[in-house]
Amino acid sequence: MELTISDLTKDFGSFRAVDQVTFTMHSGVYGLLGVNGAGKTTLMRMLTTLIRPTGGEIRWDGQDVFRMDSAYRKLLGYLPQDFGCYPDFSIYDYLMYIASIKGIRPAAAKQRALRLLKQVGLSQAGHKKMKTLSGGMKRRVGIAQAMLNDPKILILDEPTAGLDPNERIRFRNLISELSEDRIVLLSTHIVSDIEYIASEILLMKDGRITLSGTAEEVIASMPERVWLFSVPREQVDRYLAAYRVSNLKTTPAGATLRILSAECPAIGAVETAATLEDVFLHYFGESAGDSDGTV
Amino acid sequence: MKYRIPVEISAGEDAIQKTIAASKAAFVAGEAVQSISSAEFLYQQSRYIRKCWWMVQALLLLGVCLMLHALESDYLVRRTLGIAAPLFATLILPEFWKNRNCDAMEVEKTTLFSIRQIYAARLTLFAGMDLLLLTAFFLGASLLTQITVFELMTQFLLPFNVTCCICFRCLYGGRNSSEALSILLCAIWTGLWVLVVLHETIYDAISVPMWMAFLATSAAYLGYTVRRGQQNIITFLEAKPSWN
What we know:
Chain A has 295 residues and is an alpha/beta fold. Chain A contains twelve helices and 14 strands.
């Protein structure tokens, strides 16, 4: 089981969305982390054969996926960022419809749909119309439809977008549960989504994979150190302007800052262990200040 | 001398249930490794088409048939047919647009049966049903009224073909086209068509071979539009500029 991406490039006119991306995936969860506009969705769309690359290739066990055509799509489960479904269908009918276009015979489809509904915690809601579902429930239906054909490659584009913290945790656990003996590629700009479940993290910026490795490796690669210290309120702005601040907690006396810096930023600052959020801030710092760079 | 000893055999309910469960499991396991055939796919697709549109189409044709029976003037017959044909064609639009209107294509393009095959199945089903409905309509109209099959073909089938061409051009026309645009274009076409058929001098100037040529051209162009659209539908999502 090997999915190889070599020099994958995609141009939209003069804009290069994905720029010579190369990596190999085996069984496990892969977290694709990057700010909005980094090229994650384009990369995933190419992996699902939705769009053709301008250059490079994608191979599954040595075979070109675009040549494999339906044989490759048979191995694929995909949850897009904007998961559209038929509002008048019930959840069960929707899953049976998707099963039919995945070529699953009705008897097997019924069994799988019921099992997946149970797995995603919707066994009591199978009769509900899709239009009545909350964002979290809809996402769970999304993962169920992606899993219907027991895919070897599961591609989830921003699966936790719009979910509340409880749903996000439930979703994370579910993905972890489903990751056995398959490749799961999960894109997100929310660090906590992949921090605990990804066996490998791929950091994507401006269409390129800038860094990859386990969470520990990625954290260890950061040249800056992380410091914690308290400052009076009037000094907060000065530190915000001078350093990358990964956290600011207001206290009655002023604020406690978590700062990324190669050198000790202030007397009394205590060095602390870096997290993936700090790494995100380090690599995507210039975008972390805006709303897209939510960590 | 040997005698038969009667033995009472009682069925073990548990064993029967186990056998049933094992049989079901074996059946499902067998089904799980096989994919559905193209014919089964077509049948499955028919289950997910909203039948109400076929009902509305049938009711429309029935209404037209009864109207034609009641109408005496050629003028009104032409006008009725000229309006009914585009209306009949546009009733297929909701089912063809639902993938795009519901943003469902992205998932459907990554499944074993591609979006091209899904559309092909819907086209086949609608074409089959419409053929049945139109055959019944033509038969009914020929029996109930004085209208000839030739008139029905030129007055109904020709505008129907052109409307279908407009609908499919819009459907396969990339992300800038919409269902509303196709309805608008169909309405404009209906207006133009009614103007032509109600204008006696224009109508009478068109000879029978010309009508037949128009009909053949419209049918050929409809075939071309569908074929080209089916080929291009794969590239439809390419134009969607999302690169997050």
